[in-house]
Amino acid sequence: MIERYVTDTNSIISYFSDVFDRPNILSFKAKSLIEQALSNPWGSVRLSIPSIVFVEIYEKWFLNEEFVRKFFYEVYTAIDNSANVEIKPIDKEVIENLQQIGGNLLHHDIHDKLIVASAMMLNCPIITTDSAIMEYVKGNQAIPSVIM
Known about the structure:
Layout: E1 3-7, H1 9-15, H2 17-20, H3 28-39, E2 45-50, H4 51-61, H5 65-80, E3 85-88, H6 92-98, H7 110-122, E4 126-127, H8 131-140, E5 146-147
Parallel strand pairs: 1-2, 1-4, 2-3, 4-5
């Protein structure tokens, strides 16, 4: 049985913590799911990374050419070479789901709302360390679950 998960920006940054020089704050389960998708082409775990994750990383992290190269070779290449990871575009259904997001995310960062809208579109759990997203999912149940 295929298990699909959406990952947010914080999860990607945390998983590749050595590249971003940040601590890995993912749970063992979250880290294991990402690892399975990236390293086991015959496994049942699939990751969907909304394209807005890369926009947010580019916007906030691409401060010099050295980091750009490091990101490309150590993060993007690992993601791109994995048969079990897809980069999802912002499409019509994501935009339609975006309009349904309210509650504590109503005035939240647009990047996060687009990620939640993507998980809503795919009707799958989201891997996140963002407390606002966790609170929204718990209160609205618009997504099956959160993996921290």
